[in-house]
Amino acid sequence: MTASSMEELVSLCKRRGFIFQSNDIYGGIKGLYDYGPMGVELKNNLKQAWWKSMIYERDDIEGLDASILSAPVVLQQSGHEDTFTDPLVDCKNCKSRWRADQLSDKKCPECKSDNLTEPRPFNLMFKTAIGPVDDGSSFAYLRPETCQQIFTNFKNIIDSTSRVVPFGIAQIGKAFRNEITPRNFIFRVREFEQMELEFFVKPGSDEEWHKYWVEKRIKWWESQGVNKKNLHTVDVDKSELSHYSKATVDIMYDFPHGKEELEGIANRTDFDLGSHTKNQKDFDIAANVKKNEHSTTKLGVQNLEEKTSFIPYVIEPSAGVDRGVLAILNEAFTNEEIANGNSRIVLKLKPHLSPIKAAVIPLKKNNDQIVEKAKKIKTQLQNLGLGRVMLENSGNIGKNYRRHDEIGTPICVTVDFETLEDDSVTIRDRDSMNQERVLIKDLNQFYQKYFH
After folding, report:
1. Phi, psi of 86 (to 5 degrees)
2. pLDDT tier at 9 (50, 70, 90 boundaries)?
3. Residue 137, SS3 per DSSP
4. Secondary structure, 3-state, 164-185
5. I want to staple 357 with a disulfide (CB 3.0 to 4.6 A). Which of 30, 201, 241, 387 is the partner?
6. So what's the pLDDT on residue 285?
7. Options 3.20.20.70, 1.25.40.10, 3.30.930.10, 3.50.50.60; which CATH number does 6-71+133-329 get?
8. How far apart are CA 34 and CA 12, in angstroms?
9. Where is average pLDDT lowest: 19-33, 41-55, 74-88, 287-301?
10. What is the C-alpha separation between 39 and 52, in angstroms, rounded?
């Protein structure tokens, strides 16, 4: 069974070192979280799986890692300065602030008062000063999404790789949104990571590609261990579409707090490349932006058959890393009965996502021969490069098994007195709890086969 409540996941994450409240010793900051020793491994493994599926397993996508700070003109031309807002209301009774579109019965969630201000737009973008003097004249935004630098680098990548449409540019990176009411653990936060692909296509083929990427992304989430019955697609109503979108399909997931968006696949048409492709005569000089700050680069491509140029349409699959981690933890969380009326909590993660790939456990922590043998086996497996291998030298085999069940370690390798006699070890499988003896000389092959 998956986690029955968010509280179960939060408890596990703190207890086993997956996720902590940021600045916890000072009371924490709402909407900010830190990934602990297990969490950073899980998160990196998820990102690596996404990168592998986008870049290594395809021949039509390039990677990018662009700056977090964004020039104001970029987000002005993209429409974010004017449209990237949420409706904010204040409670006149308890002085709390809330998103107006998320209030139930138009009442304050804190004190249940209906004495609220009228909604007003609240810009979600963070600003930071650039240069030695903070006089308001020189600033940048912390990017609210990762895609704009993909569009501004479009020509650089075309020129340096000779790509032709259709092709994509993928990026994983931090984004920042000054959420009014962060909530539901790591689902809605102020600092988060995105896995975004901008896939450039010919106008007229965009709807077919849009459908293709919706199906592709659902299958990918399934391959990461997300049960298909917990995934749902929703066509976003035209009245709720982002300013750049012709059509958007949201992949929804049954989180512990309810059904919400895991990934969105948007047809952005030529809005973005078109917005960054303008002649100086088109610029609004009254907008207090200097002429030479505008881009005059034409972000189009050549149609060699028709000897014309066009601005590509863009299909954008955009997934939140943190939401992905939350969904995968929820799917993997299993509370099951075992022998003698006991129970255990186990994270049944896909092996490639597991923070620890194998735990090597000496049966006796004070036996030098056994411990030395265990250290050599740990190094032997670590050198295969499949992920982190841990030496677990606490001396309590039962507690070690339970700990590694809870952090999702697929196999435990126990080194005991029999190992000293015949060079064999005991392999314990996480999910079935079955055990088998394997010769150390065959261990590499067994281990590699387990993960492939």
Report:
1. -125, 150
2. very high
3. coil
4. CCCEEEEEEEEEECCCCCCECC
5. 387
6. 32
7. 3.30.930.10
8. 15
9. 287-301
10. 20
